[in-house]
Amino acid sequence: MAIPNHFVQIDEEGFCVSREMRIQDPNSGREILENLKLHQGGTLLSTFGDTPVIVEAFDEPLIALQIDKNDSHWSIRCPYDTEFSFSLDSLSVDEWDRFHGYTRDHIPFVMSRKAQAAFFNMVDEFDDDSVTADGKTYEVPPYWNSETDVEKESFWSQIYKREENPGWNLGEPAEALKDMFQRLKISRSRILVLGCGEGHDAAFFAQAGHVVTAVDISPVALERAKKLYGHMENLTFVEADLFNLPRSYDAAFDIVFEHTCYCAINPELRQDLVKVWNRVLAEGGHLMGVFFAMEKRQGPPFGGSEWELRQRVKNNYIPIFWGRWQASLPNRQGKEFFVYAKKK
């Protein structure tokens, strides 16, 4: 199935948006929500006026505004008076105590605070790990499973040894970086690239005259990077665990660049990664990154959402640019967004 070249958005309240205007027509909104489906790789698709579209959801694609129960049948009500069935055994809870689930067609949803409060009043009982309804108890696990294997150097080195071109390796800088960098017109900076892999993004910055430090946990990846770019005097490759960087990195960089690192680490450590950004950036420094917004709870790469990233950075960063990238490579189309934000 071909990926469409038209886009619509779903805002954080669950309403559809086209050309920066919220869609008011209930029939059009209903068409988009009722025809949602996940394409291979996590791209979200639907139709709008019978035209195939990529759907860019800020949070989960469905926001449950109300929970209904008819006998033992559960359903969510979403904007445009849409209704979707779900099972209690599909529920999970994120670190902000929000309940997520899947419809019978496996479309992800999240309960609004109002819907979740009503849901708690409808079940027999609930605690931190489960809910009980109609005498049956359903486990409610954390949204992310702990994925400790990806914390090990051996995990990544084995992939590099096994695969000449791992899936995250584009063989060139990220498309969004190449385009946005020209628009931002950044003066000469000290740039830190975490999880640099073969170093294509790092070399891009170095070629533009910046002083770049590129870090990766895998010596195999860095061996490849040095073969490609080791001749560049203003580019230094460092083998290190990004969660154990030397104290000399404290407040030592003007920009920290993110691309396929946030989505590769154990998702339980994402807030710790934000702390690393905060630590290494100088006063007034900037976070720059290409992030993924997609449904993918098993990884790497692990999925995420704009809502999630906003929650993680809102106390420490002021967005200068934050937007979806709609000129991605085919297998990434509809899933990337670019962020450039100033440290408070």
Describe this structure in words.
The chain folds into two domains: 1-143, no CATH class; 148-343, 3-Layer(aba) Sandwich (Rossmann fold), CATH 3.40.50.150. A hairpin with a 2-residue loop joins strand 2 (16-18) and strand 3. The protein has eight helices and 23 strands. 22% of the residues lie in helices and 33% in strands. The protein is α/β, with parallel strands linked by helices and 344 residues long.
Beta-strand segment tally: 23
Low-pLDDT segments: none
Q: At the third CATH level, what is the topology name of the largest domain?
A: Rossmann fold
Tell me the structural class.
alpha/beta
Count the helices. How many? 8
CATH superfamily of the largest domain: Vaccinia Virus protein VP39
Shape, principal axes of CA atoms: globular
Strand order of the largest sheet: 19-18-17-20-21-23-22
CATH hierarchy, class of the largest domain:
Alpha Beta
Radius of gyration, in angstroms, nearest whole number: 21 Å
N- and C-termini, Cα separation: 44 Å
Give the domain tally.
Answer: 2
From the 3D coordinates, which CATH architecture of the largest domain would you assign? 3-Layer(aba) Sandwich
- Major sheet size, sense and barrel closure: 7 strands, mixed
| Quaternary | single chain
Mean pLDDT: 96
Share of helical residues: 10-25%
What percentage of amino acids are in beta strands?
25-35%
How are the SSEs placed, and which strands pair?
Layout lengths: L6 E4 L5 E3 L2 E2 L3 H9 L2 E2 L5 E5 L2 E7 L4 E3 L1 E5 L2 E6 L3 E5 L5 E2 L5 E4 L5 E4 L1 H10 L2 E2 L3 E4 L2 E4 L13 H10 L12 H10 L5 E5 L5 H8 L3 E6 L2 H11 L5 E5 L13 E7 L10 H11 E12 L13 H8 L3 E8 L11 E8 L1
Parallel strand pairs: 1-6, 7-13, 17-18, 17-20, 18-19, 20-21
Antiparallel strand pairs: 1-2, 2-3, 4-5, 5-6, 8-9, 9-10, 11-12, 12-13, 14-15, 15-16, 21-23, 22-23
